[in-house]
Amino acid sequence: MIRALNTAATGMTAQEQQVNSISNNIANANTTGYKTQRTEFEDLLYETVQEAGGRSSNGTEYTVGHQVGAGAKVSATRRLHTMGSAQITQRPYDLMIMGDGFFGVQAGNETLYTRDGSFTVDAQGVMKTRHGHPLLPNITVPPNTKSLNISDDGKVQAFLSGQSEPIELGQIPVFTFVNPAGLTDKGGNLAGRTNASGEAFQRVPGEENSGSIQQGSLESSNVNVMNEMTSLIKAQRAYEMNSKVMGVADQMLQTVNNIR
Predict the structure, then answer these.
(1) 3-class SS of residue 189
(2) Which residues constitute the domain of residue 68?
(3) What's the pTM?
(4) Most CB atoms closer than 10 Å: which of 8, 22, 190, 249?
């Protein structure tokens, strides 16, 4: 009975973390570029009471073993990097990556990555995030710019007042990873590379399986609220069943204690 109590407790803990992930997904349903978290579980170690293939008697072997499980735990919270739908804004500094890849930004001495393309310019005309992190590479928009054009391959052109021909301001790259699920979340719609994600590869947008850039659009969250609500109900029911197992085990222990 003590084993049942501990096993059910691990199940309740695992489902509690599942609910935490679901609540975070729902809270970020309208966060630009947010990627859904999926909670993944694994079973804990087993006690082998009787090993399959072990000797049962002289000349015979057990065909089926007997193992007792110790419960479950959360093994990972995986980001699902499917593309969200496009939200048309017509704002020239709003950018969306149509496909795989990330924008690179400079946060102090560290390079971070984001799918949130809601950029703006500071007093010097430098393109930055809302938090003031400069876009990589540094793009500076002249003060007398009347319109800005960013092509699918990331080339930035500015049309200046009194000039008929645009000037080139640079090219915005897209950064890709072998394992984007290995990135670590930093908050503020930013992620950092890890040994699991691998090195960041700088690509020309639209080439080498990287996404192209669409100006005047933002990527919506890829959270499916209906799926999250379904998962929430399943997690709640699993939590309740584990709680009931604890109650039954407690009643059995009480019965044993009452034996005289």
Answers:
(1) coil
(2) 2-81+223-257
(3) 0.89
(4) 22
